[in-house]
Amino acid sequence: MPVVRASEAVTHEIHGARFVSYATPRTGSKELCAWRGEVPPGTKAPAHTVNREELLLVLVGSLRVTLDGRTDDLAAGDLLIVNPGATLAVENPTDQTAITWVTTSVGLAADLADGTRITPPWAN
After folding, report:
1. Which of 52, 55, 65, 71 is nearest to 98 (CA)?
2. The model's pTM
């Protein structure tokens, strides 16, 4: 039974946020990737269009998300479903770090508005 201990999770940082990776092909997952996201106060990540479905559950704090032009505030316990091809922007306008749990399928890529493609190691 594959178990990933907290001490074995790999941390990545990009656009002011932290991604603590637990489930990837490197840790034994065949189809899914999962990570804990930490979004500090004042963080505003650039909009990006994803190629895989993502589920983002807010565990602590709150976030403002814009999905395909519609903006909503999410609080602890709220789940955002991001479908493939959707454009997502995430920001934390509060004074508390927001903690999320995100799940997607292996192979996630995100395209930024400037044409840059990101293939995050926590989702591949």
Report:
1. 65
2. 0.94
